[in-house]
Amino acid sequence: MLFGRLNHVGIAVPSMEEAQERYRALFGAGAVGEPVDLPAHGVTACFVSTGNSEIELIAPLGEASPLAAFLEKSPAGAQHHLCFEVADLPAALRALKAEGRRVLGEPRIGAHGTLVAFLHPKDMGGILTEIMEAPHAGH
Ligand SMILES: CC[C@@H](C(=O)O)C(=O)SCCNC(=O)CCNC(=O)[C@H](O)C(C)(C)COP(=O)(O)OP(=O)(O)OC[C@H]1O[C@@H](n2cnc3c(N)ncnc32)[C@H](O)[C@@H]1OP(=O)(O)O
Ligand SMILES: [Co+2]
């Protein structure tokens, strides 16, 4: 089995403040974290705990944000990506590339402090897919 646990569902939002309010009303104030700027990814991210997984609210940060074109097409915001944990990210990427799937850019440290990489939505049934090395993987 290549993919493990669903770590988070990424949701692109035009306004982080409005999104936080919405999710506080749905999951309770304690479930919604504080936004963190991640300039290397061109986003501001804020996690919402759903108990069995997390929602990652992401808003554009900087001129070259990967969310810019997406939010032009969906100005009210929309589901942006799914993120699955893998035990060994370099090994998973080798296997996925061998199947002909396109990896977008180079792996880099993600919001949880472990390596992440993205797979092209056209190679993943229309779903932009993030894979992240599981925090307990020990690499
Ligand atoms: C917080 C850090 C990190 C974490 O640790 O969790 C993150 O989650 S960061 C999240 C943001 N980062 C990324 O999205 C990086 C990877 N993304 C990309 O490389 C690009 O956004 C993209 C997916 C290659 C799209 O690039 P873009 O220049 O916007 O191309 P197009 O607009 O021309 O799109 C091409 C094609 O793909 C469709 N598309 C685009 N985005 C999505 C999406 N999120 N889900 C599904 N499909 C998507 C788009 O509609 C185009 O389709 P066609 O119109 O049919 O050609
Ligand atoms: Co993500």
UniProtKB/TrEMBL annotation:
GO terms for molecular function: methylmalonyl-CoA epimerase activity. Gene3D superfamilies: 2,3-Dihydroxybiphenyl 1,2-Dioxygenase, domain 1. It comes from the Bacteria. Keywords: Isomerase, Metal-binding. Its EC number is 5.1.99.1. Residues 5-134 form the VOC domain. It is an enzyme of class 5 (isomerase). CDD domains: MMCE. InterPro entries: Glyas_Bleomycin-R_OHBP_Dase (IPR029068), MeMalonyl-CoA_epimerase (IPR017515), MMCE/EMCE_epimerase (IPR051785), VOC_core (IPR037523). Belongs to the methylmalonyl-CoA epimerase family. This is Methylmalonyl-CoA epimerase. It comes from Aureimonas populi.
